[in-house]
Design brief:
Radius of gyration: 14 Å
CATH class: Alpha Beta
Order of helices and strands: EEHEEHEEEH
Strand content: 15-25%
Distance between the termini: 42 Å
Bound molecules: FE2/S2 (inorganic) cluster
Oligomer: single chain
Shape: globular
Strand order of the largest sheet: 2-1-7-3-5
Length: 131
């Protein structure tokens, strides 16, 4: 059973692959989907469709347990616009958990919670015009 640890809260959750109820947020069993299932707040302004950067998380351990690995081009293009980008950055809604991982929810994302949990900044939520 894959385990996901969310930092800095230090909350670890475990789920059985293929058994997680799906709530239409990101790819099924993505980091975002797991977080929502267990009451961990990750901002997701676009609803998990790879069209914003608010669900940006930093993978501390277990990069290889996220599918796809590495991220695909759509995710990488989107991540390029994320503030505080690191070599271990992923979009929580696109990275599907296949084994144990530890992810850090960056401070700017957590700050939304203290402002009431609503989406306060939708700056990157609007997809670019189609080419
Ligand atoms: S929620 Fe918008 S890209 Fe993940």
């Amino acid at each position: 059973m894959p385990k996901v640890t969310f930092l800095p809260e230090g909350k670890t959750v475990e789920f059985e692959s293929g058994k997680l109820p799906y709530d239409e947020h990101g790819k099924p069993e993505s980091v975002l989907d797991v977080a929502i299932n267990f009451g961990v707040h990750i901002e997701h302004a676009c609803g998990g469709s790879c069209a914003c950067t608010t669900c940006h998380v930093i993978v501390k351990t277990g990069d290889a347990n996220l599918n796809p690995n590495p991220a695909d081009d759509d995710e990488l293009d989107r991540l390029d616009q994320a503030p505080g980008l690191t070599l271990h950055s992923r979009l929580a809604c696109q990275a599907v958990v296949t084994g144990d991982v530890t992810v850090e929810i960056p401070g700017w994302n957590r700050n939304y919670v203290s402002e009431g949990g609503g989406s306060m900044n939708l700056g990157n939520a609007i997809p670019p015009p189609k080419k």
